[in-house]
Fold this protein.
Amino acid sequence: MKSRVWMAALVAMTVIAPAFADSLDGKQIFLHGDGAGAMPCAACHGVDAGGNTSIGAPKLAGLAVGVIKSALAQFANGEGGNASMQYIAQALSPAETDAVAGYLSSLK
Ligand code: HEC
């Protein structure tokens, strides 16, 4: 009887866990960083992701998910960007990259 309860819990966890991974909070990462090396994007790109021309950080709000992801993938490979963006792009996990790209593309 007891093992059935455990089985049910295990099944529930394997079904629910990936859903949590997908719902990483992109806004949280944007404003506060990922706690694993990626600095808060807002520090350079602006709290509203409107960009900061004085340091050459482009506007990110409203960019397409694919555009953001391919820019980050290039930076992670050391192609383009600057040292900070390369470091940050490498620090972001794939799930974090998806989350932050989704958040930014949802902004105006
Ligand atoms: C230390 C300042 C700084 C931080 C922090 C920072 N960025 Fe950047 N980012 C820049 C600068 C400067 C550029 C322009 C690089 C270039 O094109 O040479 C840039 C470029 C980009 C681009 C390319 C946009 C385009 O249109 O080409 C993306 C996407 C991006 N950053 C995403 C992020 C995300 C997501 C974060 C947070 C996880 C972040 N950045 C944190 C400074 C920063």
User: Anything to note?
Assistant: The CA atoms of residues 35 and 44 lie 17 Å apart.
